[in-house]
User: What shape does this take?
Amino acid sequence: MNWSVPCFDDVKKFSLLLNDPSLEGSDCSLANLFLYQKQYDTRICAENGFLFRFYTGNESRGGYGFPIHLKNSVSTLLDAIKLILEDAEKNGRPVKFCMITKNQKNQLEECALKNFPDFHFEWNTNRDDCDYIYGRKNLAELAGKTYHKKKNHVSKFLRTFEGNWEFRLLSLCNVSDDIVRVSEKWLQERLNAGIADDRKILEMELESIKTAVEHKSDFEIEGGVLYTSGKPVAMTLASKISDTVLDVNYEKCLGEAAQNGGYAAINWCFANAAEKFDFFNREEDMGVEGLRKAKLSYHPQKILDKYFGEMHQRW
Assistant: This one.
């Protein structure tokens, strides 16, 4: 396989070739492959009707991603596994997989059982890597007792900034500069408060946000900005995983707005605006206790388990 670092031209090319309605994991967003390449040191390769991904991280972030079918391909998963086995042998590395969903794990196991009886899989899962998937309509309506607290947060925002707030959608308004402005101020707020745990990663994230808005059309980026008194106070950016699933990549809210329900408000605004999607993937919580609590508070429709493991030869 001829591996390469994901580049801008790859995103443009593969956006026309991917057509798999079963994809729902955040790792399958083409925009993510490009935007997070530095953070996860990703490599990609298109061969024999598949898009292959290789992650050079450790443990749950190291190994081959599930091969993604390209449009009009007649190749099978067996063909893809054969290429992966050849590539692993050529490069002298173990046959490791990462960020594999339960359905993908079952497909790999079934294919191996039928075609590679001398091999078996050993799997593990890390709760920190599991994606949170929500029904978009649920986030938009916040109906019933389940969402009572979130609806109260939105109501608090609406009361606090009554008649003095506005949500502008990225696809309809020129809000790119304000998305970057909110992101820069958010980072500075954290630095000033001494709570930027990993400044380098947060600065890389800021650069990714700038890249996303710069190439929003090519990446099929969705998003918007929340304003109070005409000033941008919150932003959100998302990228397409499939025709039904949208990956919410970034969400930031500043100061007074954040203290008065701003995060709940921009999530609610965006969920109402992104009507062509059925689901929001709000990604993993990375084991951060506060982030996990926040994601659970929105009552995910599904927590998408991610597995990592190795294909061993039986002895």
About this structure: The two ends are 28 Å apart (CA to CA). The chain has a mean pLDDT of 92. The first strand starts at residue 42 and ends at 47. Residues 2 and 221 are 28 Å apart (CA to CA).
